[in-house]
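Quick log. Single chain, no ligands specified.
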Amino acid sequence: MAVAVILGAMGAHALEKHLAPESIESFATGVRYHIYHALALLVIASVYDKLRFPRVRVAVQSLLIGILLFSGSIYALTIGNLVEVALAPYIWWVTPLGGLLLIFGWAVLASAAWPIRSSNI
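-> predicted structure:
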């Protein structure tokens, strides 16, 4: 969460003067998703001892990796633009993969909350 706040401040104050508006908007999207999912992980952590489902662990891991890939790739692409290094041809696939992991994490978390029915019913 601290990293998201630091990067958000950097985007709002330092990068704004050096990048095109669409690059700033992409960076802001990365920060927003980073913060949303970091907050979700904090909520999950606060009740984790009550859950203890193996699926919750999978969901947390998916969300963490998803944040790293989704937001991290956006950060890398934006910083690459700043220093004039074209990273997009090499890491274009990382952002959607991170997004898929975020979606998967939420789906697994939802399935962990879903009641399990007995196979005898």
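The CA atoms of residues 57 and 109 lie 9 Å apart.
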